[in-house]
Amino acid sequence: MVHLDHMRSWGIVLLLLYLFNQTAAQPNRFFFRKLTVANGLNDGSILAIAQDSRGFMWFSTKAGLNRFDGKSVKTYSFTPGDPASLPTSLSRCMSADSSGGFLIGLGDGMLEYDTAGDCFIPVKALADTWVTAIVPFNKNTVYLGTGKGLGTYNPVTKTVSFFNRQKDSLSPKSIYQIGRSGIYAYIVGNTGVIRLNSTTGQLEKIHFPLPGTARITAVAIDGSRNYWLATRNPNRLLKFSADCTTRTDYSQYIESGNNTITNFSAMIADRNGRIWVATQLNGLLLYNPQTDLFDPLLHNPLQAWTPSTNLHSTLYCDSDGRMWVGGNNGINYFNPDKTFFHILPVFNKDPDTRNRRVARVAVEDKNGRIWMGTIDGLVRYDPKTEQYKEWNNRDGRPPAIHFNSIRGILCDADNNIWIATGHGINQYRQDKGKMIFYTAKDSIPEIFYFSADKDRNGNLWFSSRDEDGFYYYNPQNKKFHSIRSVPGLNLFAGEGGRKLFQDSKGRYWLGFNGSGLGMYDPATEKHRRWKASAEPGSIAGNAVVDIKEDQMGTIWVSTFTGLSVIDPITFRVTNYNHTNGLINNSVGPLAIDEKNRVWIGTSGGLMLLDSSHTYFTAFGLQQGLPSVDFPEHAASILNNGEILMPTQNGFIRFAAAGFKKENRPLTPFFTTFDISGNRQEQQLNNPILLKQDENFFTIGFAAVNYDNPEGTWYAYRLDGIDEDWKYTRNRFADYTKIPGGNYTFRLKASTDRDQWEQPEQLLRIHIDTPFYKAGWFRPLLLLLLIAAIVAFYRYRIRQREKLLALQGKAQLLKKEKAMVMYESLKQQLNPHFLFNSLTSLSGLIDTDRKTANSFLEQMSRIYRYILKNRDSELVTLREELAFVQTYVQLQKTRFKEGLQVTVAVAEEDYSRRIAPVTLQNLTENAIKHNIIDQDAPLCITFSTENGYLVVKNNLQKKHVVETSNKQGLASLQALYAYLSNKPLIIDESAKTFCIYIPLI
């Protein structure tokens, strides 16, 4: 065994030199994402980290537990009075078991997390037992480090057993750590490092030659099977070869300056065998086998991509190789094998002085060095040595360049660097190490320049907001010229310029500083102009930043107010802004990768538009950007094809060709089920049972995606409600007024909007149906309605039958009444008429027998008519008139010329009908009530008018009328009300009395 402790002093010297270089130019290989109290943690003091079988990350802190899904944190802590809440004991170890459960070790026991109930169940067999380590090996075996020694826990049977230290002296009493490598468990305890064969159950001690009384507190095995040990008394960080014969000391990395105070916190080997060490003073350390040194990854408050602290307490490597580092202010996490964006600071010192963090433009020279134009001068960065060199103006020193503010830079064919500043053009001759200042005597004015570009002929163009707007340098004649000297292009002279680009067809595209875009085609000598307006075919903005051409010849133009795409053949313009995909309208640098995808820097982050120009992918701080604000300057392509883009916090460089949208299988899960109006979350049972008034609800869901949680897509549908899948990045689905019934909510998650071959998660929901909405209710209601209609119909029929019967009875009674009254009228003819007729007949017999015989014949005719029609309701008017004329002849025997009757009936009315003896009654009524005298005769007229028979007599009333009961006309009216719809009308004036009898 070779001891290297004697080289410790040299190691310290080398370390100090190394740390000095790292402070000057710390490698930025990793981007550390942060999770703090501001993101929802209970508190920032991280005690333990673990991942469960569903992919959740769990963090133990002083205040309780925290569960993280990549997007949000759910916390658990002790609640006084709630027996189901988390205990107050601290947890310093957690682990998923091999059966899908999750275990939490406490100072006084162990908990098992219940996924369905989202609660913690104590393991009774470990009550009041300190659990220090949890390592699962198979479905039935979890090794435990406890206050009672080494134990095993069976998650299936919930039983615990302990190793018998009396039978096996190697079993440690105190256990600090348990690690796993293959079938072996490595147990670090008071007896040293014990290797446990999980198959045979045999214990074996590994003998490490340690200095003095050193006590091992942690062990890790790297990819070369070396053992890494951390010890106390003294504090050491040691590496032993696989056969434990060679030892290397790295204690200088964890020394605190006071040997009684440890600077070491944790050590692990990741899944690729790399050794990581967490310290409390020197940050996070990564062992570099090439240099045999540890690279410190230190916090820098001015570099957002570095760790948030240098005080770390615990380490964890998850199933995807991602590193999780717990410290005094939360979590830092990163994937050491998936660092896409590499960050290049503009300066290596004083970044916050004079806005020196802001990047503008850059170019790579032929030697691989990167030249950067900044707010504070020119910077050269050598990636090989990580050395910076600056050219800038300072008071009291000769000018280094025209002006510190640089917006354009390029490298010419001779490897010279051209710099466009805010007050003139410089050239740096690399072969001579000399800066050249060009002035008006060189035909180039000392004015404000926006960019430096190269055309296909090798000319170098400089765009200015002032004077002629565009100037170029001809390498052949080594002179500057104005755009005014170029036929065709001179049309644009005098317009403020920001960018010039020549496409693959030789056409010149000119971006202006406020007046849009121009194009000149030398082949056709045609010009085109575009401006931003409300008219069709206009571009997105008038202040042009960058112009690029893709592999199809399409021209891409970035502006302050959007992105424009111009078809090279039709010149059709398509614009992009926040309404159709962009996260911000202010667009700056553009780059086209070899897959013809467009990379777009905006003031809200970096975006990638796929080659179909359909889908955007967004990148922000969580994806490794140092800033989401990209300034109004152009992007560059490095010699190796990488893209270099400026941000407000340095440059980013990335191999765009290596980026592809991962369609990693994501397993979604349900997080919450909130019922509207109910503040308490519904327990996530499956199925979920709801009352009929709980049909307003919100389903919360998520999928574990730590690399790009904002890029997670969800597809969901509620069968029976949603006609098709709904695609969203929102993690909640809202439903209102859902009818009662059984439903299935289907959920999928994906990292790619177009790929949905992932398995579904199902949530079954039952909503009680109100009785009036139940399936049986409508048929029953229909039957009841039909029965009610039938009952009502029958009732109406019965009522109608009763009504008709009553009406029939009423009609019969009315008829009977009318007939009785009419019979009474007819009967009245007998006594009156008979008495008067017999009196007249008596007188005639004595005086004129011949007339008496005729009189008697007429009387018999009258009574024969009455007898003939006594059962008839109606007779013809002809018959009635004949009858009344017979009656009048009898009366004239008595009254002579005092009674005059006239018949004036139209021939067509003789066939109409009236009630029998009507005219006789009316004639008799007129005789009864009027004075009859030969000097004042009673004149009665029978005529027809408008369907009426009119009986009219002159009025000469008697003062006294005997034998009148005043019922004659009333009875006649009642009779005709029964016989006809027309009323019997009585019209009496001072001189006449008329009765209108309706003809039937």
Give a quick summary of the entry.
The chain contains six helices and 71 strands. With 1000 residues, the chain is α+β, with helices and mostly antiparallel strands. Helix 4 runs parallel beside helix 5 (918-929).
Low-confidence segments: 1-28
Which bin fits the share of residues in helices? Answer: 10-25%
Report the major sheet.
Answer: 5 strands, mixed
| Distance, first to last CA | 148 Å
Per the CATH scheme, the topology name of the domain at 343-658 is: Methylamine Dehydrogenase, Chain H
Number of strands: 71
Strand content: 35-45%
Query: Counting H and I runs of at least 4 residues, what is the number of helices?
Result: 6
CATH C-level name of the domain at 343-658: Mainly Beta
Strands of the largest sheet, in order across it? 58-64-63-60-61
Shape: elongated
Specify the structural class. Answer: alpha+beta
CATH architectural grouping of the domain at 343-658: 7 Propeller
Average pLDDT score: 88
- Name the CATH homologous superfamily of the domain at 343-658: YVTN repeat-like/Quinoprotein amine dehydrogenase
What's the alpha carbon Rg, rounded to whole Å?
A: 58 Å
Domain Two component regulator three Y: 705-767
Domain Signal transduction histidine kinase internal region: 822-897
Keywords: Kinase, Membrane, Phosphoprotein, Transferase, Transmembrane, Transmembrane helix
Transmembrane segments: 776-795
